Amino acid sequence: MALITLLATGWVALAFLVLPNVELLTEVFVVDGQASTRAWGRLVGSERAMSSLRNSVVLALTLSVTVNLVGVFIVLATRYFKLWGRRILWLGYATSLIYGGIVMVAGYNFVYGSNGILTRLLTTVFPFVPADWFIGYPAVVFVMTIASTGNHLLFLNAAMARVDQQTVEAARQMGASQWTVLRRVVLPTLVPTIFAVTILVFLGGLGALAVPDVVGGRGFQTIAPMMLTFANSPGSRDLAAALAIILALFTMTTLLVMNRLERGGTYFSVAKVASALEPQKIENRFANVAVHVVAYALLVVYALPPLLIVVFSFTDARSINTGTLRADSFTLEYYTQALVDPMARWPFLVSIGYSALAAAIVIVGLLFVVRVITKYERSRMSAVVEYVLHIPWVMPGTMLALGLLLLFSSPQWVVGGRVLSGSIVILLIAYVVGKIPFTLRLVKAGFAGINKNVEEAAALLGASQFYTFRRVILPLVLPTAAAVTALNFNSMLDDYDTAVFLAHPFYQPLGIFIRNATRGETNADATALVFVYSVILMVIASITLWLIYGGGAGRILRVLAPRRKPREAAPINPADQV
């Protein structure tokens, strides 16, 4: 089993991880069989390309500040400070967890875009406000800041649990002010997690595609949208490849610098065994009012787009066009159409098919791969395999998609001489490959938590390796595998960044359909269907989060588990007592 697993893994790594990168390098540095720097000269001479590079760096640096400011604030508002309605605030902020990407952009475009509800209100009250006010750099920063704070809610909340209430009280009794306690006791505990989240935010800003593509306008295009523009023109694909290489270099440099800064810092864990942190009341009256005002203003910003999406998904096309609600506006027509009409539900079915297949393939394959890696963890081969499988983590999704597109536009021996570009398979391959690092890390953590004595006991009882894996190891790691599969499935449903490069014309998933519906020339029926799909996606994401983070999976298992009847106690014999 180990040999077959290694051979299959080697083929996947060579065909879909190594060769696409080689093809990108060849596209840039080789012309007509000879080394060339023509692509770099064309890239430097292109004002649009150089502007996109500057914009991506500026966006990534800006988001590193704005996302952390907003993210840390909402965590403090819901976890540390004793504010009125903290649960309501958390539910509002958590909307960034149940919808994102192209769905979130469509929601904000419906509220703030040129035909948005808020824009119509502003232009009616203030005629001097232009209809396209929500566009460019400020709009991109605004949307991506709100969209990127979900990791703070998940990870900083967990880090906040390490803060010891007794240490906070001790600092207060020694005369430290509330601000000093927050700055010197609480925040240092969060710094390692903030570093990790900042890396994700910075990389997300560098490779952003959906938000700059929709609300960036022509005045603020970043690397990824420019790569898409160049890739669609056969004569400019070398420029797209050059931009992809620069994006990869930015990504690797960011990882190296942030890891170096994190290792060079000094962080404190305030207690080895922490007592539960209690919400802290803000003593200063002015500060208390100011924090409440900011917290509820952010609640409106977070909750308004998804709330309007839900409401208008039950209305007719006229209400969506005018942004008004009437008693006769409400209808279930579009829900019926989305679920019954074959043409309307096709993008959703395509997304479900791709997401389910990719999630199943990646988890099944990596269960065997991680089994081999952990069993032979000290071998050099296992280390090499693990490093190679982490390549997609330093390759932005757009770069991976472009590499696959360029490589498989012609017959390749590694896949039996087939041309995969333009087929329905290549998008599935990109989804599977893109989810390998995330799945590998979490599944490996699940295997690491298994007591090795269990496997040794099975071997002593005569069980084969495959039987031990199937009947002993797999049931122990299955909860982790199920959670990872659910997260992978959920994250690919509304994908746009990869699908826009590789989707088959007749099998376009939901992300492309939603993007097309955000264009100004789209009719109201398509917009209404986008709202319906968005609501369905939010419901699926909410169920996924409940199953994984809300204890829903455990509750379901407890309900489904067969209840054993207690054994009746055997009658006591008086003679035995004697």
Summarize this entry quickly.
With 578 residues, the chain is mainly alpha-helical. It has helices at 2-29, 38-45, 47-80, 86-93, 95-98, 101-112, 117-125, 137-147, 150-160, 165-173, 178-206, 210-215, 223-231, 237-264, 285-312, 317-322, 333-340, 342-375, 380-389, 391-394, 397-407, 425-434, 436-448, 452-460, 465-492, 499-502, 510-517, 524-548, 552-560, 574-577; strands spanning 30-31, 34-35.
What share of the residues does DSSP label as strand, in percent?
under 5%
**Please, how many helices?**
30
Proportion of helical residues: over 70%
Q: For the report, how would you describe the main beta sheet?
A: 2 strands, antiparallel
Structural class: mainly alpha
Broad shape: globular
CATH hierarchy: architecture of the largest domain = Orthogonal Bundle
User: Which regions contain 5 or more consecutive residues with pLDDT less than 50?
Assistant: 266-273, 572-578
CATH topology descriptor of the largest domain: MetI-like fold
How many structural domains are formed by the residues? 2
Rounded to the nearest angstrom, the radius of gyration is 27 Å
Distance linking N and C termini: 60 Å
Count of strand segments: 2
Mean pLDDT: 82
CATH superfamily of the largest domain: MetI-like
Provide the spatial order of strands within the biggest beta sheet: 1-2
CATH hierarchy class name of the largest domain: Mainly Alpha
